[in-house]
Amino acid sequence: MTSEILKFLVSCLWALAGCGLTWYFMISAKEITYITLADGRRQARVIPILFKLLLPLAPNLFGLFNNKNMDKTKEKVYKQLTASGYDDLITVNEFLALRILTPLIPGVIWMVIAYVILRYSQQNILIKLRPMLIIGGPLMFAIMPSNWLRSAVKKRHMQIQKSLPFTLDLLTLAVEAGMDFMSAIQRNVEHDKLTALDEELIRVLHENQLGKTRRDALKSMSIRVNLSELKSVVNALVQADELGVSIGSILKIQSEQMRQKRFERAEKLAQEAPVKMLFPLLGLIFPSVLLILAGPMIFNMLKQLM
Fold it and tell me: Residue 300 class from Cβ within 10 Å (0-12 exposed, 13-18 middle, 19+ buried)?
């Protein structure tokens, strides 16, 4: 009996070690790299260290993505990379190669380690779960690149949503003070700490300097970011430019609307909080409280019965 318990504990420790190593490479271990913005400044980007280790192997698979059947997939990946702000760091072909390399190399290593550990385990539970534990690793690594890219897009959208009302306020003050709209953008992005929205505005300035009209540069930004709030602001500015309406008043109205949307979004999250807290309360806190309160009583009852 003692040996079986010891074997079970050893198996659990091996499983925890494997999960910890996987968590480290997939979530925790990240490397800071830099991209060069349109005005020459460098901005930090965080990339999982697992991708950094696999990227040198990516060019070996570029030949697989040259056929026309991959055009729609490549276009979709390009839009996601552009919206996430990683388009200057990871190319479309490199990301598609990561989708293959991530389950292939780390996934095979996971399968070998899991097979070796589970082969010498005598626990019935682990023996029954052996196929799931062996195949689960490659499946987990297979969805990692897509999940990472979706989370990067979501994070960048949240950053833009958060900074949009404040940026519109600054642009409104500058325009009402007599500055041109593009000059107001230039003044807004001159500070050292740049937000995700500032990076996009820098690209708008750069495109305008290269010959694009202000209207086309703003439309390109809304397509590139693919965020409904930003599209609403850009459409209002484009219409104001076409109709000759004062941009200052449009910016002020859009700023108030964005701030109202952010307040409504905060209210919605506050209303969802009790529902999200229900499952941790029932699954973790409530059993502990019940054990503390009813534990002595149950112990005394069992003691009397014995």
Answer: exposed
